[in-house]
Each structure stands twice: as structure tokens, then as C-alpha cells.
Write a structure and sequence with these properties.
The complex is a heterodimer of chains A (about 300) and B (about 120).
Chain A: H1 3-17, H2 26-39, H3 45-54, H4 59-68, H5 79-96, E1 102-108, H6 114-125, E2 134-141, H7 144-152, E3 154-155, H8 157-161, H9 166-172, E4 173-176, E5 180-183, H10 185-188, E6 191-195, E7 208-213, H11 222-235, E8 236-244, H12 253-256, E9 258-259, E10 266-268, H13 272-276, H14 283-289
Helix pairs in contact in A: 2-4
Chain B: E1 2-6, H1 10-22, E2 26-30, H2 33-43, E3 47-50, H3 59-69, E4 76-81, H4 86-95, E5 99-102, H5 107-116
Parallel strand pairs in B: 1-2, 1-3, 3-4, 4-5
Helix pairs in contact in B: 2-3
Classes of the chains: A alpha/beta (about 300), B alpha/beta (about 120).
Chain lengths: ~300, ~120
């Protein structure tokens, strides 16, 4: 692949999805686009560039971006985060939302939906504690094909065996034709999938108490990370929780979120007043009494 | 950690052995359930990787007989089988299997299942 072809694809995927590829990842672009080129009968990357240039809103252009943003996902990825969600985050949110008795969760950049359904399975296991609560789980991704797949909740043998304990397979899945397994109707009914790009405002998705945005922002540049964090913060209620991927170091986090106790990658959205105040604002002692730095009763 | 692979397919035993040895397991093999029970008594594995249907007995029968043969140290049993119906998996779990691997599998599935069975 020539340098100008690399520049074209890298610019395209940054503009449309926020992903940044350094020049030393040219081989990644080359290998990920090989099948797209083949499908479109392009003998070399230059021909693919021409196709996309001629029709920037075509399926080919979308295929290119989709191929370059493909994300590995599986059920209960980083199992510790889900244990922490159940044992620490949820009790905190239940206290915060005890008056409203409603909880909205956003699984952002959810790809084929495994993360979204993992959250739904955790909350389903808490059904007794959440009796009478309104639970709304939204999974979103910019890739329409992935959203269509996620909505069906159909997974092959490999997919249901990565991260998913066999007892949960039996509890939350039905057998489907062609050696596939489908998430039960009960769990699918807890979840709605929406096509949404993290680079654009997410106001139409509403506000949330918990946002998971894992293993995506690390592919953005610092400006893209900070801008996306602003949008995620804007979508969270005061005291809402943000869960990032394990070990992700994201620019602009300290200015927008406070670390949540106990697990790396979990953050709290401070109340609006606190976010524009100095770090020494007097809200801290009150929050510590509540057991979570920065967490307060939701004011909505 | 010791793993006993019980499967009448030489290919599957070889593939599983390669994956397990790469993860530091000591590995023994058996083609039939009866031989497997003997090895459990003498070698006392931590993990038994078990096919659903063996030439001389079913995997479920093997699990039922295991307490009498394992010398007081019950290994974790993980089924590894092409049989992947809901009913079979449910029966295996009810019989006491810690996990269930549906064939075909890859090393990621294998790792994931061993981890979930508390064996990695």
C-alpha cells in the first residue's frame, strides 16, 4: 500500500469513526481491507481508493470504515468488571435512584451486542432486588450491520463459548438452527439497539445512570477522546457511572470524571456544579460519607 | 496441574494435548471410560476432559462412576464434545460437569472455558 493510499484510508476512518491509525499500522489497514478490495473486485488498494472517492456515501465506503473499526468482543469481557458492576456499582446506583426506581444503561460502541446482553444478564440475576424498577438498556454502534446482528441476539458456537459460563448459556439462551444460540426473549426484551456514532451528539438516546464505553476510546486521538468523554459526560446523570476498558488511559478523564473506588477504569460523573468548580470544592467530604468519591443523589 | 483427556478420537486428543501442554499441564490420555476411571484412581488428575459418548460408556455414566474411582480427590470435569444440544449440555451440568466445550473449538474458547472452570 502506498503512503497516499494509507493517508486516504486513515483520514476516512478518522473522520467517520474517530479511529486513528499511525503509519506503523499500515499493515493493519492493508490486511483489514484485503477482503473489502476482493469483494469489490479491486486488484490493488489504489482501485479501492478510487471507488470510495467516486462514491463516498456508498456501501463500499461504509465497508471500508466497518472493516477498519472491527472490534473483538465477547460475553463478560473482563469478567472482573461485571462482578464489580453487580457487587459495587449496582448497589450504589440503586441508592441513587431509589426515588425514581428507574435505571438507564448505555452500552456504547457495542458491536455485536455481547457486552449489552452481558449487562442485561447481570441485571436479570438481580431481578428480586430490582422488583418494581424500570430498567432500560440501550446498545449502540455506528455500524448498522452489527446493530442488526445484535438485535437478533444470535451467536455461533465460538461466540457463546468465549466468556460465557455454561450455566449462563443454559439460563439465558435457546438453541437455534444451524448450531446457533439465541438470547432468550426475556433478556432481549430488556435491551434496545440503536445505530449511533460516538462522534455525534447522543441526545436522542436520552440520559443514563451507567455508561459502558470499553475498548474504543483507546483508538481515538487525544482530541477525539476528550470530545467523546464530553458527550458521554453529557449523557450521564449526576453521580452516574462510566466504565471504560481495562487499562485504557484516556485523555481528559480527570477534568470530567472522578475515579470510582475499587476498580481501575470505573468513574463517576460529578454533579454539574462540581465539574466546573475547583478540585477542592466542598462536595468531597459529603461524597466520601456516601461511600463513593463524587457520587451524590441523582437530582433529576 | 494434571489433565486426563478421554476421547476416542486420536486427533482430538492430540489437539487438546498440544493446547494443554502449552499452558503447563501434565497430560495423560485414555480412549475409553473404563481406562479413564483407572487413570483417575492411579494418577489423580485435577481436570478430566471428557467426550459425551465413549466406546464403552457415556460421559454421564463416567461422571456417575467417578467418585468410586478417584481415590477421594474429585477432579473437575469439563465435557468436550461435538454433541451440542441444549438437553445434552443441561444433563452434563446436572451430572456435575464444571464446564462444557462444544466442538469445534479454538484455543480462545479452550482458555476461556478452563478459566471459567477455575483451572487457569
Amino acid at each position: 500500500m502506498k503512503r497516499e493510499e494509507f493517508d486516504f484510508f486513515a483520514d476516512l476512518v478518522k473522520q467517520r469513526a474517530g479511529y486513528v491509525f499511525a503509519l506503523d499500522k499500515i499493515y493493519v489497514i492493508e490486511s483489514r481491507l484485503a477482503r473489502v478490495a476482493q469483494r469489490n473486485k479491486c486488484g490493488d488498494p489504489g482501485q479501492l481508493v478510487d471507488l470510495v472517492r467516486r462514491a463516498p456515501d456508498s456501501d463500499v465506503a461504509r465497508d471500508v470504515v466497518d472493516a477498519l473499526t472491527a472490534k473483538d468482543t465477547y460475553f463478560f469481557r473482563h469478567a472482573e468488571a461485571f462482578r464489580y458492576l453487580r457487587e459495587t456499582v449496582m448497589p450504589r446506583l440503586q441508592i441513587q435512584r431509589t426515588e425514581q426506581r428507574s435505571l438507564r444503561v448505555w452500552s456504547a460502541a457495542c458491536a455485536t451486542g455481547q457486552e449489552t446482553y452481558s449487562v442485561a444478564m447481570v441485571l436479570d440475576q438481580m431481578a428480586v432486588e430490582l422488583t418494581g424498577w424500570s430498567i432500560d438498556i440501550v446498545g449502540s454502534d455506528r455500524n448498522r450491520k452489527l446493530i442488526e446482528r445484535a438485535t437478533k441476539g444470535l451467536y455461533n458456537r465460538f461466540e457463546v463459548q468465549r466468556g460465557l459460563p455454561v450455566r449462563m448459556l443454559l439460563k439465558f439462551f435457546d438453541e437455534a438452527p444451524d448450531e446457533q444460540w439465541q438470547v432468550t426473549e426475556q433478556v432481549r426484551s430488556m435491551v434496545a439497539f440503536r445505530e449511533a456514532n460516538l462522534l455525534q451528539p447522543a441526545a436522542d438516546l436520552g440520559s443514563f445512570d451507567l455508561v459502558l464505553c470499553r475498548n474504543v476510546l483507546g483508538s481515538f486521538d487525544a482530541a477525539g477522546q476528550a470530545a467523546t468523554l464530553d458527550r458521554l459526560a453529557g449523557a450521564l446523570n449526576d453521580g452516574g457511572i462510566l466504565i471504560l476498558g481495562k487499562g485504557e488511559k484516556i485523555a481528559g478523564l480527570p477534568e470530567r470524571f472522578l475515579p470510582f473506588e475499587g476498580l481501575d477504569g470505573v468513574y463517576v460523573r460529578p454533579p454539574a456544579a462540581r465539574r466546573v468548580a475547583t478540585p477542592e470544592a466542598p462536595a468531597a467530604p459529603q461524597a466520601q460519607e456516601a461511600g463513593t468519591p463524587g457520587a451524590t443523589q441523582a437530582s433529576a | 496441574m494434571r489433565c486426563l483427556i478421554i476421547d476416542d478420537s486420536r486427533v482430538i486428543r492430540a489437539v487438546a494435548r498440544k493446547i494443554l501442554e502449552a499452558r503447563g499441564y501434565e497430560v495423560e490420555e485414555a480412549e475409553e471410560g473404563g481406562d479413564g476411571l483407572d487413570v483417575c484412581g492411579s494418577w489423580q488428575p485435577d481436570l478430566v476432559l471428557l467426550e459425551w459418548q465413549l466406546p464403552d460408556m457415556s460421559g454421564i455414566e463416567f461422571i456417575e462412576l467417578l467418585p468410586q474411582h478417584c481415590g477421594g480427590k474429585m477432579p473437575n470435569v469439563v465435557f468436550c464434545s461435538g454433541e451440542g444440544s441444549y438437553a445434552s449440555i443441561e444433563a452434563a451440568v446436572k451430572a456435575g460437569a464444571a464446564e462444557y466445550i462444544m466442538k469445534p473449538f479454538d484455543s480462545e474458547v479452550f482458555d476461556s472455558k478452563l478459566k471459567m472452570a477455575g483451572l487457569q
